[in-house]
Design a protein that fits this description.
This protein is of the alpha+beta class and 628 residues long. The chain contains 19 helices and 14 strands. The chain has a seven-stranded mixed β-sheet, sandwiched between helices. Helix 12 runs parallel beside helix 17. The longest helix has 31 residues. The chain starts with a helix and ends in a 58-residue tail after the last helix.
């Protein structure tokens, strides 16, 4: 009875704490103001849009800052070059800039005099700007600039942006104040420089260095403690062409390239809706790589967007060269062989993912877009499935699933049948295999393992070598070496057939990440079959299924909509149903219930009190006269 009473009391305490924690979380979510996301153009996200600013989400100690345009910079340049103001002396500013860049060979400082009188200079990196555009749109209009008019009286002159404190006039500037002069330069450039995309005043040295590093030309004027960043960025990049890893027979031929602005425009051309939202980030202390997060407001669950923001805000890294850096830093299970984020080179695939309520991440310098969350079935689908007739697409998709499973289990099944379970094979086939293995000195398991390693070596050699040489290596490895090994009695002919069928089945995998996971699991099942036969395959398959059931991608179950079962979304998983049968369009991702995104609260929770001691922890004094 005492044990039962203490158990009930502990259960009541646990239930009361759970209810109080849920109530506190609901209260905090209710009290938190809801702001509608804004934006529409890349880099135009105010802080009240849910924000990319890590300053307001518990990341103050990381030194991250958020620019007025909505771009979150995890490691700003101010930490390395200082964040002091610009000087009014043009020569001092130029010396400071050249010292910060270490007198780099590609740093260009072009000095000239304005027609209005003061000296000026343009600072930019050679190869990052369009020289002709800079000369025609900036330098010549500035040289034709008329002298300053007399400064207007009243608060208009004193309150002009970029002027000196109190609006004091400078001697010798034609009667106009410094504030009015900088304002007139901006207005003149906006009116005359028709080809210039963006003009932005900067006042700190760190902001000036940041603009120069990103391909802007910096206009410095003597006597002004501010500068003008002119966007004449022109970085060489390849043209838009068909991606090499996701070729289709029918469908668009455009693919992403290494330029972020071009990739954003390719997605915008397919999602022409004002609710397409952008979150702007910049990662890498030395690389300062720009990243854009795209999602459709109203389609993507709010909890998913907040979870993506939370994971991106935690990134602290020195350099981001490719999108795979970000993928490894934000995925759920880094030690799992299965990819939890989809990589694609196709803008149509990214647009379709946005329609389905997913999030796309574009990285400057990478032609691969990241799509999250995904499921296991997403990796078995190709973009061409939706461009062909639904009957053919369904048949091809089912065949693809069979081939993916065969690429993992076929070598293990051969080992189990030859070594442990001879009754699995028909008698004529068993006799043929036994006759072919009569002169082979190696056991079947070692034979499969060694030839599988050789096949992976041929695959890697074909990929790394030039295309013409790689094809030659594949032919030599597949025909000459294999035939010579059979004739020499080192490998049996059935092993070559099994490995060849396994390789063909692995090539049918539509996504590279899933193909890599299948290659790892193939060796795992080979070892299990070598030790326990068919039972080892069943045990290994059980481990893989348990892992898939426990795996999540940004909180979404990896096997959804099969587990948990969602019949509405399941009809477009194993087969492709006709478009006319989809009444409401693509089924959105689960937002509540078993498949809900597990959003982690960033706010600090109060420490939980220690639970009361159990019945065994209490020391009850022994009664006098009681035995035992």
């Amino acid at each position: 009875m005492p044990h039962r009473r203490s158990l009930l009391r502990g259960l009541a305490i646990w239930l009361r704490r759970a209810l109080s924690a849920d109530g506190a979380r609901a209260a905090s979510d209710t009290s938190k103001p809801k702001h509608a996301s804004s934006g529409g153009r890349p880099g135009a996200q105010p802080d009240d849009s849910g924000g990319t600013g890590s300053r307001n989400r518990g990341n103050k100690s990381s030194g991250a800052e958020e620019r007025p345009g909505g771009e979150t910079i995890t490691t700003p340049l101010a930490e390395d070059v200082g964040d002091g103001p610009l000087s009014r002396d043009l020569s001092a500013n130029i010396v400071q800039i050249e010292t910060a860049w270490g007198h780099a060979a590609d740093l260009v400082v072009r000095r000239f005099s304005l027609r209005a009188g003061p000296r000026a200079a343009l600072v930019f990196l050679k190869g990052q700007v369009d020289d002709a555009r800079l000369d025609l749109s900036v330098v010549r209009p500035l040289q034709r600039l008329q002298p300053d008019a007399p400064a207007p009286a009243g608060p208009e002159a004193a309150g002009a942006p970029g002027g000196a404190a109190g609006g004091n006039a400078a001697a010798g500037d034609g009667g106009g104040s410094r504030a009015t002069r900088l304002k007139r330069l901006l207005e003149h450039l906006e009116e005359s420089a028709l080809h210039t995309i963006q003009l932005e005043p900067v006042s700190s040295f760190a902001d000036a260095m940041d603009r120069v590093a990103h391909g802007n030309a910096l206009l410095l004027v003597h006597g002004e403690n501010a500068a003008i960043a002119i966007n004449v960025h022109s970085r060489p990049h390849r043209s838009v062409e068909e991606p090499g890893t996701e070729q289709v027979v029918r469908g668009p031929r455009e693919g992403f390239i290494e330029d972020l602005d071009t990739n954003v425009s390719l997605v915008r051309a397919r999602v022409r809706h004002p609710k397409l939202r952008f979150l702007s980030y910049r990662f890498g202390r030395y690389s300062q790589t720009r990243v854009r997060v795209l999602y459709l407001e109203g389609r993507a669950p709010k909890a998913l967007v907040e979870e993506v923001k939370r994971r991106l805000d935690r990134i602290q890294i020195d350099a981001v060269i490719e999108s795979s850096y970000i993928e490894e830093l934000i995925e759920d299970a880094p030690y799992s062989p299965f990819p939890q984020i989809l990589q694609t080179e196709r803008p149509d695939v990214a647009a379709a993912a946005l329609y389905e309520g997913r999030v796309a991440i574009l990285t400057d310098g990478s032609p691969f877009a990241l799509i999250a969350p995904i499921t296991f079935w997403s990796l078995l689908q190709a973009s061409e499935d939706h461009y062909q007739r639904h009957l053919l697409s369904s048949l091809v998709r089912l065949l693809r699933i069979v081939l993916v499973v065969s690429s993992v289990t076929l070598p293990a099944l051969y080992i189990a049948a030859v070594i442990f379970h001879h009754g699995m094979l028909p008698t004529p086939l068993l006799i043929t295999i036994a006759a072919s293995r009569e002169r082979v000195p190696l056991p079947a398991a070692l034979e499969i393992f060694l030839f599988e390693v050789a096949f992976e070596a041929f695959r890697e050699a074909g990929v790394r070598l030039p295309r013409s040489v790689g094809q030659t290596v594949g032919i030599v490895g597949g025909i000459i070496i294999g035939q010579a090994a059979v004739q020499a009695g080192l490998i049996s002919a059935p092993v070559i057939v099994v490995i060849a069928l396994t390789g063909l089945a692995s090539f049918a995998t539509p996504h590279v990440g899933l193909a890599g996971a299948m290659r790892i699991l193939r060796f795992f099942l080979i070892m299990m079959a070598s030790s326990f036969g068919l039972y080892g395959i069943l045990i290994g398959g059980g481990f893989i299924q348990v892992h898939l059931l426990s795996l999540r991608s940004f909180g979404v179950p990896y096997l959804w909509p099969l587990s948990p079962l969602d019949l509405k979304a399941f009809k477009d998983t194993l087969v492709r149903v006709p478009i006319w049968s989809q009444e409401t369009g693509p089924t959105p991702l689960p937002e509540a219930g078993p498949g809900a995104v597990e959003y982690t609260q960033v706010t600090e929770q109060p420490p939980k009190p220690e639970p009361p001691p159990g019945p065994r922890e209490r020391r009850v004094p022994r009664r006098v006269g009681r035995r035992g």
